[in-house]
Write a structure and sequence with these properties.
globular; alpha/beta; 6 helices; binds S-adenosylmethionine; about 20% strand
């Protein structure tokens, strides 16, 4: 099973429980919401192009971006997550899909948010993922990533549900920064939070 298939199977299994728990935690995440607020302000200032929330889960971050005045839509590999997002936020657009194959024209987006969702991509595939992000962003388009910091090692408390064991990769912020720069991004801000 590929890691993408494992992510889909895992999140399909836990979708309802995740949706009952995580949006409430997001409401308490003052620092995370501060970064999203700055991102939204920058995208609006740049010209207000559409924004994609990649790995959107049950859609609470997409809804937050919408409330911040952005034209945001969500994409998630888990159809169950997408169903929940559509049910909770019927006025917003959510699609099932993989973030490394977005099927969007070049330069379509003013911003991408991948909030706790690149941590399931094998680290060796991140350079090509960032190249795809750069492709679909307009020149100067903004990218905001949220991930668990580490050094590329798998998270020891691996997740298991529905017969699927599935890895979380702890990513080095320095290495992610270098990969982003190689893909054509300029890293302008970084927030490290002790949890
Ligand atoms: C930890 S959850 C984060 C959800 C939401 N962004 C949040 O902040 O709560 C990770 C989400 O990313 C999705 N995901 C993981 N890999 C993906 C990929 N390659 N393409 C699209 N979605 C992906 C999973 O299905 C899951 O819903």
């Amino acid at each position: 099973m590929t890691e993408l298939a494992a992510a889909r199977a895992y999140y399909d299994t836990v979708a309802e429980e995740y949706a009952a728990r995580v949006p409430g935690l997001f409401e308490q995440d003052v620092l995370g919401r501060a970064m999203l607020g700055a991102f939204a302000e920058e995208v609006r200032t740049d010209g207000d192009l559409p924004v994609a929330d990649l790995g959107c889960g049950p859609g609470h971050v997409t809804a937050h971006l919408d409330a911040l005045g952005l034209r945001a839509h969500g994409v998630d590999v888990s159809p169950r997550m997408v169903d929940i997002a559509r049910r909770r936020h019927p006025d917003l657009r959510f699609e099932a899909g993989a973030m490394d194959a977005l099927g969007l024209p070049d330069g379509e987006l003013g911003g991408i948010v991948a909030w706790w969702s690149i941590l399931h991509t094998p680290p060796e595939l991140l350079p090509s993922l960032f190249t795809e992000f750069r492709r679909v962003l307009a020149p100067g388009g903004r990218l905001l990533l949220g991930f668990h910091a580490g050094n590329g090692e798998p998270y020891t408390g691996q997740k298991r549900a529905g017969g699927v064991t599935y890895a979380i990769h702890l990513l080095s912020p320095d290495q992610v920064g270098r990969q982003l720069e190689r893909a054509g991004f300029t890293v302008t801000a970084r927030l490290t939070v002790r949890m």
